[in-house]
Design a protein that fits this description.
The structure is a homodimer. Chain A is mainly alpha-helical. Chain A has one domain (about 10-110): Winged helix-like DNA-binding domain superfamily/Winged helix DNA-binding domain (Arc Repressor Mutant, subunit A, Orthogonal Bundle), CATH 1.10.10.10. The first copy, chain A, contains five helices and two strands, in the order H-H-H-H-E-E-H. In chain A, strands 1-2 form a two-stranded antiparallel sheet. Chain A is elongated, with a radius of gyration of 16 Å. The two termini of chain A are about 20 Å apart. The interface between A and B is large, with 49 and 49 residues. Chain A binds a DNA duplex through helix 4.
DNA sequence: GCCGTTTAATACGGGTCCGTAACGAGTTCC
DNA sequence: GGAACTCGTTACGGACCCGTATTAAACGGC
């Protein structure tokens, strides 16, 4: 079995988390950027633009631009694949790993503070 | 006690939920809009523009515009307060309640499917 | 070597959202 | 009744994101 979470508590949790993310005004990631970031850090590498586009059901330019934005924030980085130089391998960064870890801690804390 | 959720599981949960929201391509709400929507539906009324702006730490035009957008989607509605006609009271709608409920069900389902 | 395929990136036009500033309507206090 | 204030909205210029279409580089079969 896994995590037991009634819908009313799930909504409360989403509320607390979304409020906290908006209030600190830090990240400012779009929902797609967040989905991309979490995929990169939670699923096993290697990650390519085409895979992310297919997985999220969006076009490749969406991924390219999101990587540009998150790259500026040092949340991800890119490297040419030397075996097939058409490919770009998306890599994790220390700052990105920290940001994902902080998000996990935030959700955990909000979940622990929920009423019974 | 409340919901026990290790950080690694919390991140997995966020990942699943954000992926599902992006993939179905339905709602397309910004993070601020989501925070506003959940506040309206999970905290006791009445809700006013100024309160939401203060709670989220954003300016009032942000709230006005978010209510415009979500009003077009029939997720919220507005009404003048007859006691003080400067005030606008933000009201829930059936479609909005359904959307919030669906989100709660989604999070619940993803949580239940998490590994132990 | 050549041509078709695949990859990521870029150009473009359109839409949305932002914060600051200004605004009109309504209330309060004297 | 008039000044000061509060409330929500709108105007504006700038930034970001989107999907389609196009591009340039690289690969692979022949």
């Amino acid at each position: 079995m896994a995590v037991v979470l009634r819908p009313s508590l799930a909504m409360k949790l989403m509320h607390e988390v979304s409020l906290a993310l908006v209030q600190d005004g830090e990240a400012d990631l779009s929902s797609r950027q967040l989905a991309i970031l979490l995929t990169i850090y939670l699923e096993p590498p290697p990650h390519h633009v085409r895979d992310l586009a297919r997985k999220l059901g969006v076009t490749k330019p969406v991924i390219t631009r999101a990587l540009d934005s998150m790259g500026k924030l040092d949340l991800v980085s890119r490297r040419r694949d030397e075996n097939d130089r058409r490919d770009v391998v998306i890599q994790r960064t220390v700052a990105g790993a920290l940001a994902v870890e902080r998000l996990g801690d935030l959700v955990t804390a909000k979940a622990a503070a929920l009423p019974p």
